[in-house]
Design goal:
The chain has 403 residues and is α/β, with parallel strands linked by helices. It is 42% helix and 15% strand.
Length: 403
């Protein structure tokens, strides 16, 4: 979806010459990371910042430019596909080394871009870019804010990833800004500057209301049927299969609306077969990727987050609450900081199938309180998790990063 030009946005809050923020992206970011970048571009643009975005995979720059026409996107001079992390403890170390080598090839270009653009600060989200940002920050005298999107894994031998991050924080002028206290805790202790800034929902974009009928009619969901939505990438780590198994075990009458792709993978095909085998074909609806989730939020009574491992934050959790929907999640990670059990939703002790099934029964038993919980959810977001509060904190940290 195209955003308005930043040149057309309000700049009343700019109290001097425009500041320049140099952001570093690969170009292949997923929904949650792109949503945060969108908030940063819009929110800091309104506060007088000019955005310059370095795209490490240059073939993806045009798509970003089309989505954000008021932002300056600069593709890397050489096409380099960034190596993804490989599964396995030792394979991960090798992939990290390859990624670091690929990034170091961009250091000279990014240093020149920072100086030529007059950047006041640097910003990244992707963890592998922390080393590159640290090197550029050292060369330019700037600080780099790392908006940390995910927990730091503990599956790397010798705790090598955390050791490298701590060195980058101490000597590379990179400041981690975690999206939850849980995410921050996964760095472990250390004598370095660190911050926690919860993400915020755009409460003008995500808000109560909307007609549930179009989505329900599209999938043949009866108007009065109770619907739980799970909006996430279609991968085993997001727990769609566990929620389906728990629905069959619980005996509750819910329909499930699963939004997210891709749908042409072995996991998605296996999930379809499992739905058929469990006799849930008429009650589990795989909608695929959605350009606008608001009609899907409107079609649901409850929104679930069933990530198998601890959820770093859970952006759809606060989006759902901004839409006036109670949330069904487990307390391992960020949702324990955003969802109030029994007030704005339900928190489970873990993401095991038996636990989820028991949780579904509790959600169904509490159906008389859904409306009150929806109102409480909306009030909770408006008080604590608005986009403008997030931007205010990030703006203050970015200004601290100026020379």
């Amino acid at each position: 979806m195209k955003r308005k030009r930043l040149s057309d946005q309000r700049t009343e809050q700019c109290d001097g010459p425009s500041r320049v923020l140099l952001c570093i992206v690969t170009g292949a970011e997923g929904y949650g990371v792109r949503r945060v970048w969108s908030d940063v571009f819009d929110g800091l643009g309104e506060r007088g910042w000019k955005m310059v975005v370095a795209v490490l995979e240059p073939g993806r720059a045009d798509a970003w430019q089309a989505a954000y026409p008021g932002v300056r996107f600069v593709p890397a001079p050489q096409a380099r596909t960034m190596t993804a992390a490989s599964p396995g403890r030792w394979s991960k170390i090798l992939s990290m080394a390859r990624r670091a080598r690929e990034q170091l090839a961009h250091a000279g270009w990014l240093t020149r871009l920072a100086k030529e653009s007059g950047a006041s600060a640097l910003m990244i989200q992707s963890p592998p870019e922390s080393l590159l940002a640290g090197l550029v920050a050292r060369r330019t005298g700037l600080r780099a804010l790392w908006l940390v999107p995910n927990a730091i894994g503990d599956d790397v031998p010798f705790d090598l990833n955390r050791r490298i991050y701590r060195l980058v924080f101490r000597f590379g002028k990179v400041v981690p800004v975690s999206n939850s206290h849980f995410t921050d805790s996964t760095f472990g202790p250390g004598a370095f500057e660190r911050h926690v800034v919860h993400l915020g929902a755009d409460t003008c974009h995500f808000r109560p209301g909307g007609d549930p009928a179009p989505v329900r009619q599209r999938f043949g969901i009866p108007p009065e049927a109770p619907v739980i939505g799970l909006f996430a990438r279609m991968t085993p780590s997001k727990g769609q299969d566990r929620l389906v198994d728990a629905l069959a075990r619980s005996g509750t009458p819910f329909h499930l609306l699963l939004c997210g792709g891709p749908l042409d993978t072995p996991y998605a095909h296996d999930l379809n077969r499992r739905i058929e085998a469990l006799g849930l074909a008429g009650r589990v609806h795989m909608a695929g990727e959605q350009g606008d989730l608001r009609p899907c939020y409107a079609a649901c009574n409850v929104i679930a987050n069933m990530r198998v491992d601890p959820e770093p934050f859970g952006l759809t959790v606060i989006e759902a609450m901004a839409c006036g929907k109670p949330v069904f999640a487990h307390r391992l990670g960020g949702p324990s900081e955003t969802v109030r059990d029994g007030e704005t939703g339900w928190l489970l002790p873990d993401a095991e199938v038996a636990t989820i099934a028991a949780g579904l029964e509790r959600v169904w038993q509490d159906r008389g309180a859904w409306q009150a919980m929806a109102q409480a959810s909306l009030g909770h977001v408006l008080r604590n998790f608005r986009k403008d509060r997030f931007i205010e904190r990030i703006d203050a940290l970015a200004r601290m990063s100026e020379r």
